Amino acid sequence: MGADGGFRRFYEEQYEAVFRAVFLLCRDREVAEDATQDAFVRALERWRRLGDASWAGGWVTTTALNRARRLLRRRPADPTALAPVGEQEAAIDLWRAVAALPLRHQQAVVLHYRLGLSTAETAAAMGCGDGTLRAYLTRARRSLERALTEEADGTRPDR
Questions:
Q1: pLDDT tens digits, residue range 11-68?
Q2: Whose CB has fewer CB within 10 Å in the chain, the N or C terminal residue?
Q3: How many CB atoms lie within 10 A of CB 76?
Q4: Cβ atoms within 10 A of the Cβ of 136, count?
Q5: CB within 8 A of 30, min separation 6: which ones?
Q6: For residue 91, what are the contacts with CB-CB under 8 A and spacing of at least 6?
Q7: Residue 99 reports pLDDT greater than 60
Q8: How far apart are CA 51 and CA 54, in angstroms?
Q9: Residue 42 near residue 48 (C-beta atoms within 8 A)
Q10: C-alpha span between 134 and 131 (Å, rounded)
Q11: Between 75 and 99, whose confidence is greater?
């Protein structure tokens, strides 16, 4: 794949999916755009190595998600940005709980449940095996259930 046409095609095919994954994780359009663009710049710099790799899309997604997390350490996101008006409290609780998960669990939840990627696609995007992804998803669901139950019962220790 040539750097010009090959990268352009890769960018056009992957940009929207990478941006959506980052936006769903951080819920801040500006951070998502910056992180996604930075990840594609890094991919272009490494295109000679990445161009023929089947995992290039996953590499860019992971790079963008990591960049977004670094940017968010400096700026808190607005948890109500995507929530429908009638469901804002539930959405805030859910995204708070997702944000409290370990990074790999957050990535698995966003890619699999919000973007609708299959487990094989999610595992490939995250650069892990199917079994590892299933473990991330299982642990994430358990943690989310526990956190949301505690929130609903008012037994959450940070309140």
A1: 998 899 899 888 887 878 888 999 999 999 999 998 988 887 788 888 898 899 888 8
A2: C
A3: 9
A4: 23
A5: none
A6: 79, 80, 82, 83, 84
A7: yes
A8: 9
A9: no
A10: 5
A11: 99
Cβ neighbours around 138 below 10 Å, total: 12
Q: Which long-range contacts (CB under 8 A, 24 or more apart) does 28-32 make?
A: 28/72, 28/75, 28/77, 28/78, 28/81, 29/81, 31/68, 31/71, 31/72, 31/75, 31/77, 32/68
> What single letter denotes the amino acid at residue 27?
R
Report whether 58 contacts 124 (CB < 8 A): yes
**Residue 61 near residue 18, CB atoms below 8 Å:** yes
Residues with Cβ within 8 Å of 121's Cβ and at least 6 positions away in sequence, in order, are 111
Alpha carbons 63 and 126: distance in angstroms, whole number: 10
Position 6, amino acid: G
What residue spans of 27-129 are helical by DSSP H?
Answer: 29-45, 47-50, 56-72, 88-100, 103-109, 119-126
The one-letter amino acid at 80: T
Entry pTM? 0.52
Residue 133 to residue 74: CA distance in whole angstroms: 29
Q: Which residue is associated with the tokens 């487990």?
A: 119
